[in-house]
Amino acid sequence: MSVGKDCLDLSNLDKQEIFELVALAESYEKGQKPKALKKDVKVANLFFENSTRTVTSFQMAEHNLGLSRFDLNLAASSVKKGETLSDTLKTVESIGMDIAVVRHSEDAWFNTVKQEGVKLALVNAGDGAGVHPSQTMLDLLTIKQEFGKFDGLNVLMVGDLSHSRVVNSDAHVFKKLGMGLTFAGPKEWWNEDLNNYGRYVELDEGIKDADVVMCLRVQNERLDDKEASSFSVDDYVSHYRVDEARAKLMKDSAIFMHPGPVNRGIEIESKLVDGPRSRIFKQMKNGVFARMALLTKVLQANDWMED
To answer: What is the pTM of this model?
Structure first.
């Protein structure tokens, strides 16, 4: 299931559907007002993992669309008493919510809850190391604004390739739209599944041809004990940090992106985050418009918004 009555994954969308979503996000960024709602739509935000960018941009997107928003304090909820995700969702459904925006540490959590009878509309705000559809949307919007196209662009993803849902989510869609992909980072975190989308390269080689250099945070919270004990910040910085010296190898037109949060000085040198090539804060701004577009499609598919 992709974007329809639910928004769970973008991988099953065809190119035209993706282009339409990007165009809708662009129109919102340019000031287009959303269509009228047919009812008072109530949305619950359930973030089982920490978030700043995703949660606040979903909140702003919901506000801009005129939805009635409810933010659950999960730290003080019955989850702490052992309530399952499905039962939590069935509870908010019973109380009268129409949509639940969920971030959860379990990969593909939505498959389980659907099998267990959850019926309200679901929006995936990130599932473990699975996918992150709204991040992919805002990345696409940022790239489109910069280059005016997707086909023929080269994207280098640098960092934690094994545990990042951003890599999994972006790679499939980027390739579908004709972008070339290369990957760099610690070889022990190379994900063999990524061979389906591009190739592993040394950072100093791959950065020369990239139009977009996507730096990725080390997912410390997903490392197992062996990975955590063997990880060295100094070694990572020496071999995989994008710094000023490596930035000089890039094309003049190339840009930096990062899904955040940025660990300044580790994945990317701090001054580059705020420099002229950086589109990192533009990505954050675009998150509102991308999430408005995805929520619009869910609202229209459920006949809660005018087409």
So the answer is: 0.94
